[in-house]
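User: Structure tokens for both sequences below?

Assistant:
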Amino acid sequence: MTEFGYTAGGYFVKTTEKYDSVTNIWTSKTDLNVARDGLAGFSLNGYGYAVGGGTTGALNTTEKYNYASNTWAIKNILNTARYDLVGFSLNGYGYTVSGFDTGYSIVTEKYDDSVDIWTPKANVNTGRDYGTGFSLNGYGYIIGGYIGIESKSTEKYDDVANSWTPKANINAGKDGLAGFSLKGYGYAIGGTTGLRSKTTEKYDDVANSWTPKADMNTARAYLSGFTANNYGYTAGGYTGISSNINEKYDDVANSWTPKGTLNTARSYLTGFALDEVSTTITSGRSSFSSRGATVSGGISAGKGKRRR
């Protein structure tokens, strides 16, 4: 299995870049059709997706990335336009959760790529923007975000029951954070508590507990996250300016290492990963019943809201 990381979008940009962890190089790829930040990303059945987001207002746009042809195709729109939303894929379907439209959204939508349709599903308990999410061992999660204050909230989605359940809070309320799952555990990284953060927290779904882990080297908010080849990555973000920083997380050593930088510094971007050898992607139909799925929530500058 050879997995490649991708980042897409960012503050008023269409940029897509591909990361090769073997060569430690980012390569520019075909731009999105629609420039946007605060978008959600996930991979599903061998393709990448960029969903929602906005520039001056919320968008309902869905785009599908084909790595073989290096093209983005416009797909069916969300039912509810949102920016600063969270995305993950779970048991063969894509999901977008929460975000901001005319207020903090509680909407969940499910994407069936076989028919190109988004379907409304059970609402989250707490609407938020700037959150993150991942799928883990057959369930979806949304973490943190902004609800008027920085939130500690974690909720778990059961797609069979179509229900959201509150779970253990993260230790520090944060928005603008990144998330991924790695070897059977979830991670919430960076963001802002009012000040930009470098913290990492690890979620154990069996114990329902969050544990602080090693800090990133550089505090960043509004960054992207993905996993590739058994390591976690955070790329881009906001450090006071848009950043091209990329860091790699080794869960065995519990350490972050600076890696090759993005070609284009960006914040408020999203990320996903694709396995380009077998097209068995890191976030698709078969991945979420096992440990190691990849996902990143969409986060954004906020269309006139505060930027930290």
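Moving on to the next sequence.
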Amino acid sequence: MQVTIITPTIGRPSLQRLIESIDKQTASGMTMHLLLWDQQRDSNAHTPESYNSERRQSIVLPAGTGRNGHAPGSPLRAIGLMCARTPWVTFADDDVSWQAEHLVHLRQAMAAKHWASTLGTVWSPTGERLGVDRFDSVGDLSFLFAYHGEVDRDLQIQAATAYAKALPALHYIAAHCAVDARRGSTTSAARVRVGFISRFLYTA
């Protein structure tokens, strides 16, 4: 399997974890990992050139290339596609990592097809497996009728129930926010209360 892996990046620490997971892939064949950069950098980022190797190449583009409204990185992905020289191309964000058999399973899924997609596994910061991320299949988020003076509380509850069913990890509560049942408060500091003021809030 000859595949190019495209990663827009700012050099955050998790990039190294992704690189290590790609280097541990058990699939046979050639992989080329393209790292796409503009001027944006994580405070702890290494230089783009330091990642270069026989199977990995950093491409640094002009300032602002990676900006695209609410979809940062998409122009970098497009440039990566134009740079690819392999029959297959896939994407990997710099805050994910792959299991060792990822490319093997991807190749199996592509058998006699022209494309394939995968589901991600969600992990807590402490390494707890929270479940499989099926949220992408939900599609666009629901439209808010409150913007037009309508009460849509019940509709939002139904939408939230559908989202939670697609991705149970949405129920995850970080340990420092968990409620101590015996004391009725958080186990560490007092819970922070947040208030919202808006002319788009209505009572049912």
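User: Anything stand out in the second?

Assistant: Residues 39 and 63 are 5 Å apart (CA to CA).
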